[in-house]
Every structure is written in C-alpha cells, then in structure tokens.
Amino acid sequence: MEPILQIRHLSLSLPVKKGMVSILHDVSLDVAPGQILGLVGESGSGKSMTAFAVTRLLPGGGHEKLGGSIRFCGEELTEKSEKDMQAIRGRDISMIFQEPMTCLNPVFTIGRQMTDVIMTHQKISRAEAMKKAEDMLASVHIRQAADVLRCYPYELSGGMRQRVMIGIALSCRPKLLIADEPTTALDVTVQAKILYLIREACRRLGTAVIFISHDLGVISQICDTVAVMYSGHIVEAGKAADVFETPEHPYTRALMAAVPKFTVSAAAGDRLFAIPGIVPDPSEAMAGCRFAPRCPFATEICRTAPPSDTLTGAGHLVYCHNWQSAAPAIGVLRGKEAEA
Amino acid sequence: MSALLEIDNVTKTFRTKGFFGKTKEVHALNGVSLSIEKGESIGIVGESGCGKSTLANLIVRLDEPTSGRILLDGTDISHMKEDELRPLRRRIQIVFQDPYSSLSPRMTIGQIVTEPMRVLGGHSEAETEERAKELLHMVGLQPSAMRRYPHEFSGGQRQRISIARALMTEPEILILDEPTSALDVSVQAQVLNILTDLRAKLHLTYLFISHNLAVVKYISDKTVVMRKGAVVETGPSEEILTHPSEAYTRELIEAVPMIGKPFRMPDDIAESV
Ligand SMILES: Nc1ncnc2c1ncn2[C@@H]1O[C@H](COP(=O)(O)OP(=O)(O)OP(=O)(O)O)[C@@H](O)[C@H]1O
Ligand SMILES: Nc1ncnc2c1ncn2[C@@H]1O[C@H](COP(=O)(O)OP(=O)(O)OP(=O)(O)O)[C@@H](O)[C@H]1O
Ligand SMILES: [Mg+2]
Ligand SMILES: [Mg+2]
Fold it and tell me: Exposed, middle or buried, B88 (CB in 10 Å: 0-12/13-18/19+)?
C-alpha cells in the first residue's frame, strides 16, 4: 500500500537559551493507511518531537527550524502555513496523549466539550451534535453513552477518559492518528481494551497510526511496522515481526534485553540488564554513531563515521557499521543478562 | 515485633460537590489493612481507580483517612497536625506518577533536587550540591542538568529527577507511585537496579505501585492485588504472580503485553461508568 505519510531526512532544531539545539537528525519514516507504525526508543530519543514535527505543534514559539520533507497525502507539510496546519490538524490528523485530562476542560461536561468540537466543524444544532457525540462514544464501545455525556472529566476513570479522547480523535475520520503513549497511565486490562480500540479503528476506517511507546511488549503486539529511535536518529526500522524476531542493531537488542521478565526477581539476586552509560544530550556533537560510546561492539569506524542505512532483509533497515559482526551479540547480551 | 508501617482498616470516602450542589460519594478505600516490616518491599497492583494512589497519599499524609489508623512505629499518624508531622516527613518520601505536574516549572533542576535537604537544614551548600549531583548521576543525568529547567526535559527525564529528589533526605520508607511507567526499559532497569542497591545498602522499605506486573514481580517480596478499594489477594510475589489464586489476578497477568506473546483480545471490550 502507498504510504500516506512519508518523512524524509527530517531534521529539527529547537531554540534554547544559548542558541539552537539539534533534536532530530535525518529521520525517514513511512506510514501506510490501515497500518500502525510503532516508534520506540529511550526517553528523550525524539519520539514525541517527531510526532510534533508532523503536526507542527512544536515547543519553539515559532523559532524552531525544520529541515527535510514531510509528505502527507501527497502534499508537503513543511511548506504549509500555520493556518493550513490548523485545518489539517482538525480534519486529517488527530492526536491522543498519555494524560487525556490535560486536553479536557474540567469545568464543562464531556457532552458540552464534544459538541463544541463537532459544532466548530459542522453547521448543526446542539441537539444534533449531541446525537453525534453519543454515536462517537458508542463507537468506542462505551455503554450508557448518554450518561457519560453528562459527566465531568474528573468523574470518569483514566481508561474512560482515554476512550472519550479516542472517540473525539476519530470523529473527524482522520487519515492519520498519532497516539503518544496513550496507555502508559492505564492498567493492563484497560490498556488491552484501548489497544484493541485503536487497532480496530485503524483497520475499520483505514486510519494510519503512529503509536509511540517505550513499552516494547505493547509495540510488538499491535504494530505492523516499527522504528527504533536513539538520540534523535532512527537506528533500526522494519516489519515489527522481523525487528522483534531478529533485531540487528545492538541498541535494539540491548533494549529487548532490559525488559523485565516474570522469571527474574531482585530477591533472588537477579540484576536487570541496563545499557551502560547515558543517552548523549542532543546538543552534543559526535562524529560517528551516537550509540558508539555505549555499544559493546563499537570499533574505530563507529567513532569516526556516521553509519548509513543497510537493508538486511525485506524492508528491514539498520543503521550500524557492524551489524553483521555484531550479530552474535544477542547471545552476548543474553549471556550478560543471565550472568548479572 | 511490631511493623514499621501498619495500615489498619483504612477507609477513604471522597465527597465531591457537583456543579448543581448535589454531593457525590466516592468510596476510594473500603477497609484496607496492610502490615509492612522494616526493609520489606511491597508491590501494589490493581486496575485504574482501585485506590492505590489514595492509599499512597494517606501514608505520606497529603490527606487524612475517613476512618481507620495508619501507624508508623506504633504511633497513629493518621490525624497528626502539620507541626507534629514535620519530623516524620523526612522518613517517608514519595515519588509521584505524573512527571509533568510534580516538578515546579520555575525552579532549576538543582533547586528542585536540593529542596528537601534545604528544608531540613543542617547541611552545607557544597555538601547538598555534591549529593544532588551524585544522585542525578545515579539516575543517568549529566551534572549540567542542575542549571536547566523542567520544561527542557522529556517525561522520562523528569521522572528520574523526581526520584533523585526523593532520595535526597535518605528516607526510610519510599512510596513509589508508578515511578517507572514513564521510563524506557533501559532507564527502568537502571532505576530498578539502583532501588535494589539502595534498599540493600540503606535498609529502605518500599511501597511500589505499578501497572507493570513484571516490574512488581522483580522489585517486591510481597504483592498486594487491589480492586475497587479493597485488597483481593496478598502474598509472596513469586506465589501471587506465578500461581495466582484469584481469577482477577489471572486476568491481570494475562493482559500483560510481552514480546513474542500474541495480542490477546479482551473478553469484554465495552466499558460502562
Ligand atoms: N522545549 C524544549 N527545548 C529544548 N529541548 C527540548 C524541548 N523539549 C524537548 N527537548 C529535548 O528534545 C529531545 C527529544 O524529546 P522528546 O520529547 O521527543 O523525547 P521522547 O522520545 O518523546 O521521550 P519520552 O519517552 O521521555 O517522552 C530530548 O532530549 C529533550 O530534552
Ligand atoms: N480528590 C478526589 N476527589 C474525589 N474523588 C477522588 C479523589 N481522588 C481520587 N478519587 C477517586 O477515588 C478512586 C481511587 O482513585 P486513585 O487515584 O487512588 O486510584 P489508582 O488506583 O491510583 O488509579 P490509577 O491506576 O489510575 O492511578 C477513583 O474512583 C478516583 O476517581
Ligand atoms: Mg515523549
Ligand atoms: Mg494512581
């Protein structure tokens, strides 16, 4: 399927006190209709900024610098005015966030807020909008939708508020839904329902989804494709099944090794595998691969030249000089994990 | 030997004023009892809204229980006044769930992290700053972070700052309310390893609230499963999380997403208020 969103060589710099800091480097991604792309990576790796660059909801007060290209439905978004972007955000691209409370006004009922949104886009009466709002809630499987419309946000559980946000986000039948850690604050049973709702909407409406999470388990279960980010770069991308079955980048392998499993416990003296060192600050200039200082397989070339993309299988890209010689690494990391 | 912390039949009812004057009652906790020994690590799991954070807030006395007692070293702290509480505050620290609202936007990271120690007094400026840097390093942040502001950090970075801050006063009891749910796995592993080391070194007592059952299994000796303001099941983590006796606990375990485990369609997708 033709991708609906094509990001090519995207770069982003944000203004800070002492000039500009470079946040994203050479990010290229594709998302197809009816498909879920997972963005995964350590905190601060640039997942949210990639999403914000697409919607242009960037924290730079207009002084941010975007480079490269973002093609959405065949149109170049980086050239659009703020006014055009506003229209696109209300119509073609929707976002849901980790904490739906921050997007809901505490002093108005859910019904009032939903109908306000509907009525800014459609010339219909409050009563008609209320009916539409009820349908929206029913479409995200909320029972007694009419009662929920009379509730204030604080009267609803976190899972229910996230359902309301998904209902609102999908009401304009967006072509692209960006979900930034939508289930991070929810318990596992509610999370499973929300994941199902997102997947169902994606398949039923043909919505393309960018799903951001640091939970590799969640990403592996619901995404069709996945991109692993590190310090503002993509380090590995491909079909989710391929990336999780045969991770090629030492960073992806390290992340997978760090996931706690039911078989380990601190009481039994087990240690969790943690990647040594820390993520480099985005402002830190580096000649070679940004993961090199923390990578157990780094050689001279890794410290001097940035890695280019290598196709290791159908659509499976890895940005690593040594992905082949590092291949036995997975054993080494697992060994380290076991030994620790 | 009496427990370090004893939660005795605690209830908490919230009365919220509706906008048209009608009051609504939310029974957040319905008679919860728990006993925590010094040096123990207790995990609390359960669905959203089952009362985990309410319990945490009562223990650190950000709120008072409606009934029941909270005993610290045998002394009931549940209705103590602020000046009586002050010496106890150092002993119990909390790390909150939400890394966005828990850090003051106008303070530098240095000011935020050193604040609990400044409030206590009795430490030199240099000593305080040194400890702050050490703790920031432990949670994986550069010393240069001291001069920056919260908005310059991502969610996960902010949560690490909260953990460093909570550890400043070397508390005996650390209440961790979803401390790693905003963190990526590697930093989570670092933080859990650090928490394990600190606990062994300083004989810390943990109350660890999390949605991640594998994390709770790792960090806690005992696990408490809660549902709708009540305790469903308590016991050694190994037993509860590998041989649960309650259907609800099994349901929780089955819903945990894991790499290589296919997505399990929930039995009932609908939800009602
Ligand atoms: N307003 C800002 N000014 C300067 N730098 C910023 C700003 N907001 C974020 N950053 C930096 O941009 C980088 C990418 O941040 P981003 O929020 O995209 O991370 P993330 O991958 O979404 O992390 P998390 O998993 O913690 O949400 C981080 O290094 C962060 O410190
Ligand atoms: N200040 C308050 N006023 C009214 N109701 C409240 C208040 N604080 C909590 N509640 C209600 O008490 C119940 C328990 O909430 P609590 O925050 O303790 O749940 P939780 O187990 O921490 O959930 P989560 O996993 O979503 O964090 C919920 O129904 C909540 O809506
Ligand atoms: Mg983010
Ligand atoms: Mg809570």
Answer: middle
Under 8 Å CB pairs connecting chains A and B tally to: 195
pLDDT tens-digit map of B225-244: 999 999 999 999 999 988 99
Is A142's CB within 8 Å of B270's CB? yes
Report the pocket of ligand 1 as residue ranges, CB < 6 Å. Answer: A 14, 16, 21, 23, 41, 43-49, 59, 214, 282; B 151-156, 184
d(CA B260, CA A2): 28
Q: How many residues does chain A have?
A: 340
pLDDT digits 0-9 by tens, A19-34: 899 999 999 999 999 9
Give the C-alpha separation, B265 to B44, whole Å: 25
pLDDT, tens only, B140-180: 788 999 999 999 887 668 878 988 899 898 899 999 998 88
| CATH number of this structure's domain B5-91+175-270, picked from the four choices 3.40.50.300, 3.90.400.10, 3.40.50.2000, 3.60.15.10 | 3.40.50.300
Question: Does a structural domain hold residue A137?
Answer: no
3-state SS, residue B146: helix
pTM of the model: 0.82
pLDDT on residue B155: 67
Domains in chain B: boundaries: 5-91+175-270, 102-170
ipTM confidence: 0.79
CA B195, CA B193: separation in Å to the nearest integer? 5
- The Cα of B77 is separated from the nearest Cα of chain A by a number of Å equal to 29
Evaluate whether A161 touches A184 at the Cβ level (below 8 Å): no
**Cα(A117) to centroid(ligand 1), Å:** 29
| Token duo for residue A80 | 């659009």
- CA dist B218 and B237 (Å) reads 8
Say how many domains are in chain A.
1
Distance between CA A303 and CA A292 in Å, rounded? Answer: 6
